[in-house]
Amino acid sequence: MLVPVGTSAAHEPLKPDDLQLGDKPTMAWPMDPQTNMVRDGSRLNKVLLLRLDPEGFDAETKDHAAEGVVAYSAICTHTGCDVINWHPDRRLLECPCHYSIYDPMEGAKVVSGPAPRRLPALPLKIADGRLVVARPFTGRAGFQQM
Questions:
Q1: Tens of pLDDT, residues 125-135
Q2: Which of 33, 41, 82, 143 has the fewest CB within 10 Å, making it most exposed?
Q3: What residues contact 145, with CB distance under 8 A and at least 6 apart?
């Protein structure tokens, strides 16, 4: 399950309807459904969630989305800043540190900027009306120092 970043001790798992179509990203942490342990011990677990029109998704993005909701690592692959800027008019994500721009409709591929690779996706599914992690990240979260 996924819970919003910055919530109180009573973590309420996110549902697809908690995210509005085209709205800014919601930051979330994974939560173990058996123990209710929130996996916030490493910022590499931080996930950004967006709800978009799945008609525009490429095949890879459709494969890891659930009801139009996509999840990507919130950590820029360039130097590890949080990817927090959202451009709803262009439907693009941007890292504010060095302006890498990612396309969430196409697997968060790099559109411009110094990021060396796309943001890893976190495949989702719906279980009991909640957003649930379906599989591990599609790549290593974070950045690689040279």
A1: 999 999 999 99
A2: 41
A3: none
